[in-house]
Amino acid sequence: DAKTTQPPSMDCAEGRAANLPCNHSTISGNEYVYWYRQIHSQGPQYIIHGLKNNETNEMASLIITEDRKSSTLILPHATLRDTAVYYCIVIKGANFGNEKLTFGTGTRLTIIP
Amino acid sequence: DTAVSQTPKYLVTQMGNDKSIKCEQNLGHDTMYWYKQDSKKFLKIMFSYNNKELIINETVPNRFSPKSPDKAHLNLHINSLELGDSAVYFCASSKGGQGTNNEQFFGPGTRLTVL
């Protein structure tokens, strides 16, 4: 699976959009970009994933560049509860348990009141 | 209803003991996983099971033995506990099969402390 690079930490004011970047320059054509987050002491939580089109759900938007070498997770109106470590992970599709999430160091996002 | 549950939430034990952590999912998923998060917060996969069969065994010492009595349960048994086994252990599950969605659902974690 391709490696990812994320900034170690970011701050965002409450109510503003949080934009979290991720580089995955070695991504291959059949690999997806997944985002998870881990709020302190809890299990990781799935946020969103995409292949090449931009995606949006109730939690966030995912913007993937045309060459697929980078992406940005957008939390449109950050709240204090969004303070967490955010992980960008590149992984192939489901394959009977033969796939594994490889967590890097992630980005520690702090929402400032 | 909790989707992925683990028991116990905390486990404190002495070196050399044997202990088990239980995991259950009520999502009807075919695939379950165990991850370990160490003191530096690195989260790494240990095992995956699909339909009760071991798929991934990520060079984990054989003191760790996962057991899947059915698709809804994946328990982790650890023999001869060592100080370095202290960590938070997360269970997860996913639909499995083959397809585009690889979303995994995680349990709340079990914090193991070996004294």
Can you put this structure into words, describing what you see?
The complex is a heterodimer of chains A (113) and B (115). In chain A, 0% of the residues lie in helices and 48% in strands. Chain A is mostly beta strands and 113 residues long. In chain A, the strands form two sheets. Chain A has a five-stranded mixed β-sheet with strand order 1-10-8-3-4, with no helix packed on it. In chain A, strands 2-7-6-5 form a four-stranded antiparallel β-sheet, with no helix packed on it. Chain A starts with 8 loop residues before the first strand and ends with a strand. The mean pLDDT of chain A is 93. Helices cover 0% and strands 57% of the residues of chain B. In chain B, the strands form two sheets. In chain B, strands 2, 4, 5, 6, 9, 11 and 12 form a seven-stranded mixed β-sheet that branches. In chain B, strands 1-3-8-7 form a four-stranded antiparallel β-sheet, with no helix packed on it. Chain B contains no helices and twelve strands. The relative contact order of chain B is 0.33. Classes of the chains: A mainly beta (113), B mainly beta (115). The A-B interface holds A 32, 34, 38, 41-46, 49, 51, 85, 91-103, 105 and B 4, 30-31, 33, 35, 41-45, 48-50, 53, 55-56, 58, 90, 92, 94-109.
